[in-house]
Amino acid sequence: DLVAEYGPDVGLPPTELEMAEYEQARERGEQVTAPAPMPFDRPTQERRAKRAERELNELGRVNPLALEEFAALEERYNFLSTQLEDVKAARKDLLDVIADVDHRILQVFTEAYNDVEREFTQVFATLFPGGEGRLLLTNPDDMLTTGIEVEARPP
To answer: In what helix (H) or strand (E) does residue 3 lie, and over which residues does it extend?
Structure first.
């Protein structure tokens, strides 16, 4: 029974590559015929076996821990990816808070500066009748980093 099923007179089934190409052609709608079994040719099959053995040797030894190492690395990657997303979200939140604080500081400083500048002019005129005093911003275009200069001309 085995000789009838697997003997030298029985053709070799198509290779996986031949079957894959056949299936792809069918999926594309092409009119193709299924690959036929090949007659057994010992020298050809011995060459195929040697080539397969050589390719197997080129692959090198199997690392039995590779799956465990991969799982550990994948878990670490997923953890770090999650952490990175958390850091990005926190950074965005912090930048939003900084923008809000900068806006509020700018508003409060501008109001305070205008009030102090107005009062300084009046107080200086009261303390030094006939004199003139005022406050000037060193960089009025950037209120968050500007300095303040005092300009005074006593009588």
So the answer is: helix 2-6
